Amino acid sequence: MSDPRIRTACIHAGYTPGNGEPRNIPIIQSTTFRYATGEQMGALFDLEANGYFYTRLQNPTNDHVAAKICALEGGTAAMLTASGQAASFYAVFNIVSCGEHVVCSASIYGGTYNLFAVTMKRMGIDFTFVDPDCTEEELNAAFRPETRAVFGETIANPALTVLDIEKFAKAAHAHGVPLIVDNTFATPVNCRPFAWGADIVTHSTTKYMDGHANAVGGAIVDSGAFDWTKYPDRFPGLCTPDESYHGITYTQRFGLAGAYITKATVQLMRDLGAIPSPQNCYYLNIGLETLPLRMAKHCENALAVAECLKHHPKVAWVSYPGLPGDRYYALAQKYMPHGTCGVVSFGVEGGRSAASRFMAALKLASIATHVADAKTCVLHPASTTHRQMTDAELAAAGVSPDLVRLSVGIEDVRDILDDVEQALAGV
Ligand SMILES: *Cc1c(COP(=O)(O)O)cnc(C)c1O
């Protein structure tokens, strides 16, 4: 089949059963794989043959689902990780080492911010956080000789800023480094960052891709477009021999299409081991099959909720990139003309305490440290996910103390609106 449309790819990509084989992707719940001779297995260890030997590195169930996500993003290679956090870490650590530097949008998920600003900083990797709305000059000024990557989120969780992917890609490429984009909130159904110049895409598949709050997971996809070999001094891990694999050079052996993901699999997965279970990948695949249907409904419901909040006297402000008049509406129209996501942020008149009373009065929407699944849920980031941040850091990340993040589900929108209205009435 030649390049199916995305709705078809969500159902079929990544797995084509042979005659008499299971129609669904089978769950290969096995840590190990059998071989007839030691030589056969040795060839796998030397990366001379393709095949499975131990699920910490690769598993057939996981690989089918990775191949589907790869097709959805239009990439050349992909891998799944045990969480979105692991995906963000591997995606950066695969090409950035101690003493090196990353330029990062300040408007990112709180967990990613902590990973970068605290944990990876302890590993000697420095991050400069830039305002995503900065000018090209300001962006270019953030680069250093030791910069190795640029990172941002298509739609930032929870600030809902929209990344100007072309602007960030242009700056990254002018400095000879790749742009990594976390595409969790938009999903490839609504945005394909590679089409705008991103080089690597990451996902927390825990969110819309899984879609039912079943399984934590992550994904990394490579576009295959970034030419590491133009900068061998900057990316020695990809362009010079790896002694832990008998001196193979990833770009030579696997080409630009496969070098980055192969290196991340055989080095980072081997050594750090954040592999998802085949069972979880199976759940993820079920979610992917209905992703386009669910995204359309999430966006339709979220827009209705945003419109209602915008005109409500007890609401101080609303942020939803799909809402005409929103600060990011124009960028959202450019990068995501068919819809953005189901998450709406707003401030309740009366600030932090009014926000708490609103949350407590909700009946349908549950208070949950989660977003982006079928069930409407709500969170107050300043007192939960972002509580480790100072007020100044919160402001830089676009999170005000009164911000309520409402993840609009796919229930009947009239019931969601009724719930929001009755909770606001009680504030
Ligand atoms: C949730 C989330 C992550 C982290 O993913 P986990 O699967 O929870 O580890 C990363 N990026 C974004 C945008 C997220 O929403």
Automatic annotation (TrEMBL):
GO terms for cellular component: cytoplasm. The modification N6-(pyridoxal phosphate)lysine is found at K207. InterPro entries: Cys/Met-Metab_PyrdxlP-dep_enz (IPR000277), OAc-hSer/O-AcSer_sulfhydrylase (IPR006235), PyrdxlP-dep_Trfase (IPR015424), PyrdxlP-dep_Trfase_major (IPR015421), PyrdxlP-dep_Trfase_small (IPR015422). Keywords: Pyridoxal phosphate, Transferase. GO terms for biological process: cysteine biosynthetic process from serine; L-homocysteine biosynthetic process; transsulfuration. Its cofactor is pyridoxal 5'-phosphate. One of its GO terms (molecular function) is cysteine synthase activity. Belongs to the trans-sulfuration enzymes family. This is O-acetylhomoserine aminocarboxypropyltransferase/cysteine synthase. It comes from Lawsonibacter hominis.
